[in-house]
């Protein structure tokens, strides 16, 4: 056997295997194709009544499609439309207890002593049909409730309908009593049709206007350039940061007017990831012909349409704390803080635990900073420091330092170029040097990013001999002077920031290496995988070369 050739084949296989094993996986969140759990319900219920001196006819047509499951981007459902001919029944009393349950995830359950033909849910200004069908005493459906709302139980009563309404809260089981007299008609199927419907799982782009559209074979309704509002909304049992687009629409098609309402609510979790959304449409119209002709001819037509899509993205996490609303770059932003975790409506590049809270680097038409804790949230100014090399007295010892002066009366962030990662930072407080808490600065892209709180003079002191101090001059105990100055440009921090973890309490102690445990970055772990992959490939390549040489 040719061992050299055999060894080369084996090592070549290992090289290929290492590439396969170390290919990084980058997960996406929100509408970029993440797997999501979907509740979907689409109902159209239509009553048609016509009468002449010789006969009368009443029909009901119900079109419905529902879905409950895991999807990615889009899914297909079967829609069924059935037309029934109704025949008058007998008057009967229905008395007993109604049980209503609205789940935290959008499920609706109703048990009623009287047979239901429809269950409507109203939350805020948005109305939805949670269920519609042949009268039944127990039904299940889907609807979105922003914490609390109203449920209307609709019963057939001769040629019309009767309803009972109750206030409800999401996540609760509630009971009520009813006592109604109804003439529930009998049903005969006239025709049935089915078709496939494609549904896209896609929300609106945050901080942009949205477009709504509803269309069927008879009418098309639009609400374009709908503005958004920011707030907290109910999502899966919690109040979370949200953006809401809502629009009423009244459209006339010929002589018929259609009333419509549209709503889209998107929910955001930790670090600005999209946790889910709700898309809801409600359309109705009523037409009555022949009412002025006495009993000669009369025709009535009532149509209600509703669709609701409730989406929860897999793996999303939300903070549960006090919400704050502030303005970033002229736009309203909701921030929610809970033990270091930050949920917000805006895109987040990075979060870093500072001494008294969390510093958040956000992107909203540019990079901005926000400071937040359990009692406060405010924007943070990114400033350019005036930098020079100086000598300062630290514990009666002269040390080379970089002085950074900033002009800010509130919280601020600034950057200083550094030579190595072994240093401490002091701030000037009333003429005295105070060691800056190590959480208040971190390394990114060859710079140290400092969170000001809000002192105006800082000193970076290297704790190893490998740094270059430049031209120096004498200094006093707490103030400095310099004969040589240099400038330092402010650089915007990237989305892959490492965190400087420094436990030093005196300038003679060295700070530790950057720690990733204090920063949140989706790409940081990918970089680690890249480095490991490169090292493995190099080692395998050396082994191949060694065998080939033999």
Please tally the β strands and state the result.
Answer: 33
Mean pLDDT: 80
The main pleated sheet reads as: 9 strands, antiparallel
Number of DSSP helical runs:
2
Portion of residues in beta strands equals over 45%
Sequence of strands across the biggest β-sheet: 10-3-2-1-17-16-15-14-13
Q: Short summary of the structure?
A:
The protein is mainly beta and 550 residues long.
Describe the protein's topology.
Layout lengths: L2 H19 L14 E16 L4 E16 L2 E14 L3 E12 L4 E17 L2 E17 L5 E10 L2 E10 L2 E12 L2 E15 L9 E6 L4 E7 L1 E8 L2 E16 L2 E13 L5 E16 L8 E16 L8 E7 L2 E8 L2 E4 L2 E8 L2 E7 L3 E6 L4 E6 L3 E9 L2 E9 L6 E6 L5 E7 L2 E4 L5 E4 L2 E6 L4 E6 L56 E2 L3 H26 L1
Parallel strand pairs: 24-27
Antiparallel strand pairs: 1-2, 1-17, 2-3, 3-10, 4-5, 4-9, 5-6, 5-7, 7-8, 11-12, 13-14, 14-15, 15-16, 16-17, 18-19, 19-20, 21-22, 21-33, 22-23, 23-24, 25-26, 26-32, 27-31, 28-29, 28-32, 30-31
Helix pairs in contact: 1-2
């Amino acid at each position: 056997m040719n061992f050299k050739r055999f060894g080369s084949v084996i090592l070549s296989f290992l090289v290929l295997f290492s590439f396969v094993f170390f290919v990084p996986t980058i997960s996406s969140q929100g509408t970029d194709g993440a797997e999501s759990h979907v509740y979907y319900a689409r109902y159209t219920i239509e009553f048609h009544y016509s009468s002449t001196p010789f006969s009368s006819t009443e029909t009901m047509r119900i079109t419905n499609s529902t879905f409950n499951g895991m999807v990615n981007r889009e899914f297909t459902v079967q829609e069924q439309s059935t037309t029934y001919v109704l025949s008058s029944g007998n008057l009967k009393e229905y008395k007993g207890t109604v049980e209503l349950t609205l789940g935290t995830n959008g499920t609706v359950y109703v048990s009623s002593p009287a047979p239901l033909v429809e269950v409507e849910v109203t939350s805020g200004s948005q109305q939805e049909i949670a269920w519609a069908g042949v009268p039944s005493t127990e039904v299940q459906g889907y609807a979105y409730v922003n914490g609390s709302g109203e449920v209307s139980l609709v019963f057939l009563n001769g040629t019309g309908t009767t309803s009972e309404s109750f206030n409800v809260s999401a996540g609760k089981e509630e009971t009520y009593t009813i006592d109604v007299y109804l003439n529930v008609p009998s049903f005969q199927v006239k025709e049935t049709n089915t078709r496939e419907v494609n549904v896209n799982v896609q929300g609106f782009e945050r901080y942009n206007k949205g477009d709504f559209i509803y269309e069927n074979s008879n009418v098309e309704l639009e609400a374009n350039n709908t503005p958004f509002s920011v707030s907290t909304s109910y999502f899966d049992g919690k109040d979370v940061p949200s953006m809401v687009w809502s629009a009423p629409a009244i459209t006339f098609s010929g002589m018929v007017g259609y009333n419509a309402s549209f709503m889209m609510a998107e929910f955001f979790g930790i670090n600005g990831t999209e946790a889910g959304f709700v898309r809801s449409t409600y359309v109705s119209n009523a037409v009555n012909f022949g009412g002025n002709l006495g009993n000669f001819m009369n025709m009535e037509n009532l149509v209600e349409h509703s669709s609701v899509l409730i989406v929860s993205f897999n793996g999303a996490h939300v903070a549960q704390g006090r919400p704050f609303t502030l303005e970033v770059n002229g736009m309203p932003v909701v921030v929610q803080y809970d033990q270091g975790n930050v949920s917000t409506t805006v895109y987040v590049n990075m979060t870093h635990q500072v001494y008294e809270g969390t510093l958040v680097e956000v992107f909203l038409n540019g990079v901005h900073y926000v400071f937040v804790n359990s009692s406060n949230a405010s924007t943070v100014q990114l400033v350019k420091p005036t930098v020079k090399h100086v000598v300062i007295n630290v514990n009666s010892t002269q040390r080379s330092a970089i002085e950074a002066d900033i002009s800010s009366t509130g919280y601020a962030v600034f950057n200083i170029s550094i030579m190595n990662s072994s240093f401490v930072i002091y701030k000037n407080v009333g003429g005295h040097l105070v060691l800056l808490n190590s959480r208040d600065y971190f390394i990114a892209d060859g710079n140290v990013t400092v969170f000001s709180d809000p002192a105006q003079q800082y000193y970076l002191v290297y704790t190893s001999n490998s740094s270059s101090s430049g031209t120096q001059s004498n200094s006093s105990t707490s103030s400095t002077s310099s004969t040589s100055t240099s400038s330092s440009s402010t650089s915007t921090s990237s989305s892959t920031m490492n965190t400087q973890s420094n436990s030093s309490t005196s300038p003679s102690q060295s700070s530790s290496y950057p720690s990733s445990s204090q920063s949140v970055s989706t790409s940081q772990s990918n970089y680690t995988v890249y480095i490991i992959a490169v090292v493995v490939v190099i080692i395998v390549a050396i082994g191949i070369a060694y065998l080939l040489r033999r």
